[in-house]
Amino acid sequence: MSNSQNLRKYLTEDELKRLLHIIKGHKSARDEAIFVVAYWRGLRASEVGRLPLSAWNQSKRKLYVTRLKGSLSGEFPLCKAEHSALTAWLKIRGNTPGPLFPSRESGLIGAGIGRKMLHVLMVKYATEAALPVHLRHMHALKHALGTHLIAKGADVYSVKDWLGHKDIRSTLVYAQFRNKERDKAAQMIYEQG
User: Rounded to whole angstroms, how far apart are CA atoms 81 and 150?
Assistant: First the structure.
């Protein structure tokens, strides 16, 4: 097995907290909303910019997520952090129809924020949060959510639905991440005993 296959593919809960703390410290309501929603919805970078304002049902506190790459779309209840972040962002963004997170170049009626800019932001904030270099990409957030849900006791079928996976095998990867982590911790403890 190559060294790259041994690298952890997700942010730990502590790393995620550091990342979100750094973003919050920059006082950018847009960026905070982007990263909180990207994490809690398990979004790919390309899905973030495609979210229209109309996908957010403010009164029901739900967000309709259109998934790409053959994943399953659906409407999901928002957690308190997502609702708060989106509400703060809407005060700045306004109610004009268009992308929920518009590109600064295209404006409200243009295109949503692009994958390249999301990557730039992720690298910037992840560097400030001192995250491992190999985790300074948006997809680490999706991996983190899947892994965190499994760790908190969510069953695999709930995680499958949450992340929009069509095939349960895609979801089982997150359980394998946790197994490797457990095995590594056990080996370390056994060596000390």
Answer: 20
